[in-house]
Design goal:
Number of helices: 4
Low-confidence stretches: 126-130, 133-137
Helix content: over 70%
Largest sheet: none
Number of strands: 0
Radius of gyration: 18 Å
Structural class: mainly alpha
Order of helices and strands: HHHH
Length: about 140
């Protein structure tokens, strides 16, 4: 299951680079400075959270699998809703699309909270001590 999170993160990372390149070499002449900034914020969050998906997949391998996979899914959905809304808002200059961004932002926040739980569970299977501690702690 964590493999799809890593693959999706890598694909979304590549698409984030494409979006950034498009902004720098295509949109810069077509959009106002304000709308270009909206697009670039979308790219920034897109790339950060694509990396977060890959981190979630790595955490899933160490333990806390359920919450790490949930985090990865929330990051992917957040990219789609948050960054996607900003991309459409900037290119089409339709403010209504911006109304989806808060839902995407909530997905990103919930993804980070899920990742907190997943990292807390690292190596905490039945009878296992927490990492860095002996079973006597």
């Amino acid at each position: 299951m964590e493999r799809w999170v890593a693959v999706a993160g890598a694909v979304l990372g590549g698409l984030g680079v494409v979006a950034g390149t498009f902004a720098a070499h295509g949109l810069d002449q077509m959009l106002s400075a304000e709308l270009l900034e909206v697009f670039e914020v979308g790219v920034r969050y897109h790339l950060f959270h694509a990396l977060a998906m890959i981190i979630a997949a790595l955490v899933a391998e160490r333990g806390g699998r359920l919450f790490a996979v949930v985090a990865g899914g929330l990051f992917g959905l957040g990219i789609l809703l948050f960054s996607g809304a900003l991309y459409v808002r900037a290119i089409a200059d339709v403010r209504a699309w911006g109304m989806l961004a808060p839902f995407g932002g909530m997905c990103l926040i919930m993804g980070w909270m899920s990742l907190v739980v997943a990292t807390w569970q690292w190596g905490r299977g039945p009878g296992e001590a927490r990492p860095g501690r002996s079973s006597h702690d």
